[in-house]
Amino acid sequence: MKNLWVRTLSGICFLGVVLGSLLVSPWLFGALQVFVLVAMLLEFYRMTMGTHYPLSRSFAILAGVTLFVLTFLVAMYPDRLSVKLIGVSILPLLGVMVGSLYTQDKTDFGLFSNLYTGLLYLAVPVSLSNLIVFKGGTFDGSLMLSFFILIWASDVGAYTFGMLLGRNGKKLFPSISPKKSWAGFWGGMVMAVAAVLILQATPLLPIPWYLAVPMAVLMHIAGVWGDLFESQWKRVCEVKDSGSIIPGHGGMMDRFDSAIFAMPVGTIYLIAVGLL
User: Fold this and answer.
1) What does the alpha-carbon distance between residue 273 and residue 211 come to, in Å, rounded to a whole number?
2) Under a CB-based contact definition with an 8 Å cutoff, are residues 89 and 67 in contact?
3) Residue boundaries of the structural domains of the chain
4) Is-contact 167 178, C-beta < 8 A?
5) What is the torsion angle, in degrees rounded to the nearest 10, for the CA atoms of residue 148, residue 150, residue 151 and residue 157?
């Protein structure tokens, strides 16, 4: 019961921070995204590399932050800054590669591949979130808030239906996540569709229902893949949680595993149908 209260209170506090960043200021949004990105990269590198190559890990984190910051600034000031500026973010990444040449102990050199994997897996999707909140230089967090609500509804539906109907049912991916069931998968999809039908009737997501429903389905599926992908890394690395930064919840990767996959898919979908 104590853990439930801790989990609930920390979840409410974190939700308040996320909502505040989306509704108050683009600078607050940018600061929170940088914090989340750095926390996730630290967790991923700690999980996959331990304490090996600390300097190269620092350069990789710098490359990820540089990519986000430059994308943020270009999205905020499209009339003043050229999109070509984003190319500068390659410099810290080159520093990682050049630095590997001067590493004396190459016993675990294969671990360097995790540096690039972390950037592709975490830094690129987080940086692309700027496409969701900026339009023509104007900051509007309503679409990203809608995405979060859809993802949260999917997660709640998957957990609830999984607990009620999936304990003894067919498992979704037993080799990676033994507790996830097909009942949870379909329950999450139902909740995601229900959430998007409510959202599309509000100013938060003013798009036709026949375009909103396919988006919800695609984002739900992508979110499940994102959850499974992180679970696969944790199983290979033999860890239960990616970290412990949020009491009762685990690490930042544990909180954003679904969003890392779902939000880019939702963004690409809206671009494809001409709504973004």
Assistant:
1) 8
2) yes
3) 1-137, 141-276
4) no
5) 140
> What CA dihedral angle connects 130, 145, 199 and 206, to 10 degrees?
-30
Percent of the chain with pLDDT over 90: 58
Q: How far apart are the first and last CA of the chain?
A: 44
- Burial (CB < 10 A; 0-12, 13-18, 19+), residue 224, is buried
């989990």: which residue's tokens?
A: 7
CB atoms within 10 A of CB 90: 12
Cα angle: 207, vertex 219, 200; to 5 degrees: 20
Q: Which of 35-49, 94-108, 218-232 has the lowest mean pLDDT?
A: 94-108
Q: Is residue 250 classed as helix, strand or coil in its secondary structure?
A: strand
- d(CA 37, CA 69) in angstroms, rounded, equals 11
* pLDDT value for 71: 96
